[in-house]
Input
Amino acid sequence: MTDATAALKLIDDSLEGAIERLFSFVRIPSISADPAYSADCDKAAAWIAAEFQALGCKASVRPTPGKPMVVAHYTPPDSGRKLPHVLFYGHYDVQPADPLDLWKNPPFEPQRIKNKAGVELLVGRGTADDKGQLMTFVEAARALIATNGSLPFKATFLIEGEEESGSPSLVPFLKENREELSCDVAFVCDTNMWDAKTPAITTRLRGLVHEEVTVIGPSIDLHSGMYGGPATNPIRALSRLVSSLHDAKGKVTIPGFYEGVSELPAAVKKQWASLKFSEKKFLGAVGLKTAAGEKGRSVLEQIWARPTAELNGMWGGYTGAGTKTVIPSKAFAKFTFRLVGKQNPAKVLKAFQRFAREQMMGDAKIAFSGKGGGSPASEISESNPFIRLSAAALKAEFKREAVLMGSGGSIPIVRHFKDILGMDSVLVGFGLDDDAIHSPNEKYNLSSFHRGMRSWVRIMGALGQ
Amino acid sequence: MTDATAALKLIDDSLEGAIERLFSFVRIPSISADPAYSADCDKAAAWIAAEFQALGCKASVRPTPGKPMVVAHYTPPDSGRKLPHVLFYGHYDVQPADPLDLWKNPPFEPQRIKNKAGVELLVGRGTADDKGQLMTFVEAARALIATNGSLPFKATFLIEGEEESGSPSLVPFLKENREELSCDVAFVCDTNMWDAKTPAITTRLRGLVHEEVTVIGPSIDLHSGMYGGPATNPIRALSRLVSSLHDAKGKVTIPGFYEGVSELPAAVKKQWASLKFSEKKFLGAVGLKTAAGEKGRSVLEQIWARPTAELNGMWGGYTGAGTKTVIPSKAFAKFTFRLVGKQNPAKVLKAFQRFAREQMMGDAKIAFSGKGGGSPASEISESNPFIRLSAAALKAEFKREAVLMGSGGSIPIVRHFKDILGMDSVLVGFGLDDDAIHSPNEKYNLSSFHRGMRSWVRIMGALGQ
Output
């Protein structure tokens, strides 16, 4: 019988030390999307591996063709009882920090500050996504071991380093280490609370597929005076493709795109309506007023249950100061498609490519990166016993029912855990909608970090019951 | 009576020296659009002023709120005859050199090379536009003075440094120095030949107006998972604007855009048709096949006599390596409009702004740079005596009739010389269509440089008859 009381007290008493450890982690600029930060990714992997070693785990940094994986195994002393074997997942890589000039503090020099409302924040790239989140379960394990001598279950920790860049090495790694990594359940800490006071477990995740295109017009950049008129302008051709992706009602126009998308069951629709989600507040927080997605659907439905086609970046021609009267040779764009239900990433990608080719005009040609990767959407049963156990623990900590919610983002690992390792995932996270996790000035509320650690102490304690 | 024979021989005999002087000039990276090269613009101004001083001119570098102007006056010994007073115009600034990685040689390290066909080329940024071109009349004057003792006319040289960035200081400068700069005629050397063997005088120039826009969606960059669907994406809004600028027949859709545009007179249409211009060759040289402009109009008409709306640059969101699932806060684009006939730049700009605002969707807002400047189109009478004199001199040099042609590019100075100084301009230049003047690997054929100098010796000689 594990007593969580002493561990909870230790979490409260040693908060400063936990913040200092998180800040050391955040100071490593482990940006996986940019090859320039490759050595920093290695450094972050070594750092978190050393933390697991300190907990008494057998920890290793495992090379992959991309960024290394960190795997750590914790085996409690033999009690004679059959103990559950639980996997904890997080990622040590972070998003690129640009545009740098919009950060109030340098992204990799984390700070503890108070905002205007007096709320304490931990600011810096990765304080929330995902270094802060994953450290909540690391610190909880540390406190339980310190106060109880050991954890009351067998644990495997899997920390990857490519989550922000499409996880190219993940599936091969899971397949190669299927036996070692298969557990009774996975806990994934990379999601949000319902609000700052209400915990949540995410049971519905959108999938994702991405593609980068190059539209080619003339073979060289041209003078817009000498060629303006007869020359095909690749920016215009690309804009035409982008603007033809949606109809006037906000629906994606790619033929076959909605294959596998089901209407939301009435019961789920009703539950979400009961959440009293303020669309005005959600949009207003980021300077918006009008829901831009499919007409006739709520914002929650648009985010949690509908697929999208989005532009993440687009560029071509002269982008420096002043004017340059050029017709560029090439224009580029990065697209992502959020997927739901049974949409097939490979099929969506192929349908997009066919559609994109058809939108080209004049001499414009389109080329695809060939790197389009993706994962389908996931749904998790709400009757899973680990979901029920976790919901009860969260309720004990927050004195409120945990909301069982959807998420518009993608956590492909959930899908892979099910498909490759045969285990369900319980998504418990303590992020908030205003954490700015892919934007400048990312932050993690100190209360998210603190109550996150306390919540894991309760969940881990309950695993030993 | 000026004898050009000795000067022509001197040009031939001292070609190496002329090339070396041009290369010294090209080595100064005088990019006016980029503030980082401001000191280099000053250096280029000083360099060309020193050249005029060496010719016996009274030369000065005159400050402006932007880049300095170079003005030089040449007064021949008093012969008792009434001599013509002629202005020569060129510009010492050059286009930005990016993308740098497409240059075979560094842009500001000029070289003399032979292409695969054995044609000798001078390569480097500015070898043609406009340093190479303007040095043709400087070298011609040098040769005439060396062989005849003086020029047979009064000359004023005006070399500006903002031609590639909209010439913001030009109009105030012309107005402030109206008396000093008003001559009988201006010779402008910044245009092309008809082909490598056939000289040309340009009598028709398109005007230009430009604008840079910022489209604003959310107040911060957003995670495309968390907001994908309901969030307004500024790239999509901007693409919609871009793709709505033209109809299916290639016509610009901005209401009122064609106000002041006349159909080409039948006689001019016939003359241009007789030029046996190869559309296939013109487009094929830059990797294109199909004329993308207004349907039913020839390529020459599209370039010389029709207005356009072009995208010179567009950017927004993540443009680095790999993927970033972001919905950006802002997207940007640079537009230029080529003008013909009596189109009014300010009216076109206003009509575009009104149209652009109407294309915004959802919460997207559009802001304009407020820096949109421009100049209307120009046409010059073909019966002007200086045009006739120049055409005869060119025929003597090239043993072919000079073509009286149009140009799709803008030389606003021509308009300002007429409006402010009351003088016509004769546009004689030796550039070729494949000079890549706003692209990587800009070049000037050695024959353009050599016969350009010889042509000016003949024109200058004829001015003394």
